[in-house]
Design goal:
- The protein has 9 helices and 3 strands; from the N terminus they run ααααααββαβαα.
- By secondary structure, it is mostly helical.
- β2, α7 and β3 form a beta-alpha-beta unit.
- The longest helix has 27 residues.
- The protein is elongated, with a radius of gyration of 24 Å.
Amino acid sequence: MATKNLGDLLLDQHVVDHNDLESALEVQRKSGERLGSTLVRLGKIDESMLVRLLGEQHQVEGINPQCIEPQAEALEILDLTSAMRLGALPLWIRDSTLSVALADPGDANILAELGRRSGMTLKPFVAPQMLLYAAIKDAYTDSRDPREEEIRQVLTRSLGHLKKIVADLEQLLDD
């Protein structure tokens, strides 16, 4: 559960002044995005600062999910649609504990659903929403060329043919 709102943390730590915060809040109201995302977009804070502040705000470790390669086993717990709906990216499983990046680690409904789906203890991390949704898309989207295996097989066969041709040429030169 958040102890302070992000705006208060920013002011307390002298990251922004009242004018910067009010300007960002005005932009945020019009755009509908989260305050942290607005501040990053406006260049008032960087992503690493936002990760740190969100961790402090939610009293869990903040992470940049784009810097983590989730375990395939963890990703199987949710499909892309569920991950996007929940704002949750399963990261890894260790000792019956699912580590998961969340936009809102204090949302009891999301935590309950993840617990039900996984049957595991949860270790929540907080991540900036803009980074989290990009990481979810990347994790659940297979960026490989669907013909990759076919191409590999053709290249392997071609290499085999080339080796045979070289061997035949060497034999001719030796004769």
